[in-house]
Amino acid sequence: MEYNIYCDESCHLEHDGIKPMAIGAVWCPKEAKDIIFTRLREIKVEHGLKPHCELKWNAVSQSKLAYYKDVMNYFFDNQDLHFRVLLVRDKSVLDHAAYHQSHDSFYYKMYFDMLKNIIEPTSSYNIYLDIKDTRGQDKVNRLLEYLRTTKYDFDRNVVRKIQQVRSHEVELVTLADFLIGAVTYAHRGLTTSYAKLELIEMFKRRSGYSLMNSTLYREDKTNIFIWRPNYNKNV
Questions:
Q1: How far is CA 206 from the centre of its chain?
Q2: Dihedral (C-alpha) 69, 70, 73, 78: value to the nearest 10 degrees?
Q3: Which domain holds residue 200?
Q4: Alpha-carbon distance 72 to 82, whole Å?
Q5: Which residues contact 64 (CB under 8 A, 6 or more apart)?
Q6: Is the pTM higher than 0.85?
Q7: DSSP-derived secondary structure for the chain
Q8: For residues 25 and 115, is the Cβ–Cβ distance under 8 A?
Q9: What stretches in the chain show pLDDT beneath 50?
Q10: What is the CA radius of gyration of the chain?
Q11: Range 197-224 burial, b when 16+ CB lie within 10 A, else e
């Protein structure tokens, strides 16, 4: 089976004043991608939106709550769609100097930790990342090689490619943004948006999880991993 993995992140900047940092992905069989893209655009039109407008957690509003609920239901009702998120609860306590790394290097390490649980040696994967900056391709290439090495993918049949894309052009990158945003909002303890709080409660109900703790390692639909620093090593 060949899969497409669509990745995004939330609150990943080192000095943004926000404690949590989340990196996540939505994935599906490659053969199901076109049908899913089409249906997500149809849902927009059904709610009076343009088919190519960007789905984003930050845009959630009370006036379009019904639309966002339909998107949430579509994710849970479609057996081809899966979600995983890695969440760092407080990035301000990280001691990058102790590990001779920058925050940017840590960011890509977390990307690897998020992806490694999705990738199986019996399948193949195309990975799409939202463009982070103009210098990101070199690090994307290193991530690709690291994934291939750790998965013993010497023939390059498992991880076929990692490609940077513009999120507004790829429906499932924006779906990843939406779901990651919900988890991050919950961990920030924010209560400023009734619509967002209602969507989070819907997320909890449909997933069966609180969103605040790690799920089982092999959870297939909504997989949450709360990353914990090794304080014994002063991380």
A1: 18
A2: -150
A3: 2-233
A4: 12
A5: 47, 49
A6: yes
A7: -EEEEEEEEES--TTSS-S-EEEEEEEEEGGGHHHHHHHHHHHHHHTT--TTSPP-GGG--GGGHHHHHHHHHHHHH-TT-EEEEEEES-GGG--GGGGT--HHHHHHHHHHHHHHTT--TTSEEEEEEE---TTHHHHHHHHHHHHHHHTT-TTS-SEEEEEEE-GGG-HHHHHHHHHHHHHHHHHHT--S-HHHHHHHHHHHHHHTS-SSS---TT--SEEEEEE---GGGT-
A8: yes
A9: 233-235
A10: 17
A11: eebbebbbeebebebeeebeeebebbbb
Q: What is the CATH number of the domain that holds 44?
A: 3.30.420.10
Look up residue 50 and give its two tokens.
Answer: 């343009």
Residue 153 CA to residue 160 CA, distance in Å, equals 9
The confidence score (pLDDT) of residue 157 equals 86
Split into its structural domains, the chain has a count of: 1
* Residue at 123: amino acid letter: S
The answer to whether the beta carbons of residues 180 and 172 sit under 8 Å apart is: no
Length of the chain: 235
pLDDT tens-digit profile of 187-226? 999 999 999 999 999 999 999 999 999 999 999 999 999 9
The Cα 194–Cα 64 span in angstroms is 12
Question: Tokens in use for 218?
Answer: 């092999």
